[in-house]
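Researcher: Batch entry, complex prediction.
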Amino acid sequence: MFEHLNPALPTPLYAQLAERLRAAIAANDLAPGDALPSVRQLAGRLRLNPGTVVQAYRDLERAGLVELRQGSGTYVRELAGERRAAEQAAVSGRLANEMLERAVGLGLSGDDLLNALRSALRGERP
Amino acid sequence: MIDGMQVLDAIQARGLSYRVEGFALSNFNLTVPGGAVYGFLGPNGAGKTTTIRLLLGLLRPEGGSIKVLGRAVPTDVVRVLRRVGYVPERPHLYLELTVAESIRFHSAFHERYDRAGSDKLVSRFGLPPDRRLSQLSKGELGKLMILQALAQRPDLLVLDEPTDGLDPVVRRDALATILEYVSDTGATVLISSHLVHELERFCDWVGVLDQGSMIAELPMHEFKSGLKRLRVSAGAATADAPFSVLAREAAGVGSEVWTVRGWEPAMSSWFGASHPLKEVVDLDLEEAFVELLRSSRAPVREVA
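Model: Structure tokens for the complex:
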């Protein structure tokens, strides 16, 4: 879930990390009560500044998705059904915007992208 | 590192100058805020190692003042060095000792030396305790130097090209270990490297040295913010642009590539219909670094 964090993107690394975790929480890959890796573990494993990990976790805490328990760690909170759906919609929305921006940058239209997405959903390979 | 916390500068050098035959460091400032992970960048021969040796009192500056962890260098250097873990560019360990002997030897000099921690690192790094240092591979020796520096439990870690010449797996291990230490202790790190992409993920400050002068020193996010490469229709004028143009080159038929700083998305409307903007590409740290060196060495090159 943490692969391909890319420092060259304009989105800061902490926001990229928070986004991965949001998606995992929304998809229930990280279930309520699950502990997030410790700041130390994640900083070491991803070779990130510990401050970057702390910032991502604070972001999720502010969004009400995790709770920081003093001296123990960071845990995923219980999410109401509609909140989970809203999170999933928000993550998908941001992903769609990113794809659209890149497509436009390459001179493609939104319809081009939509058609490509439809055929991808049908399992067709380009 | 932690916001809202007031921290003293871990390193403060003012008006630093130093000269040897054929090379000079000319009157520059360097500031490493407490708790920062500071990437000290510059091409080979820029003066990074000389600067580090000055900061640690191993060379005497010709002019200027240096404070490390709040104390004057070189006056108070012995007390400073007790709190500094230093990994020099070249091995500084006695090569006839074994790994275990080397650790015992070093631990005698440092009151905070963490024997339990160093034992853990010996096994994590897979170092053979009974082998002489002269028989270790370059990667093993590199790991041992990092182990020695961390086992001192330093408040400031100074790493001079710590991963140069190490294979990617060893590099990852070494960097992970350093970042775990930072996470545990909040220690300040100054790490010099010409492997720019390696520093991009974890440094929060950048200093760029070129030809003996500091040409940029700022937080990483500022260094990278608004640095873009634009693909533009040929012939657009750069005068009165709301961003600064670092470099400008012809790119194929009817196109130019501009490297710019201070870019914001809203600025795309500055390009008129006659010379439209075709593409905006993000630059990574390495590219930003190269463009910075180019623009500091030569003014913007206009397209012929």
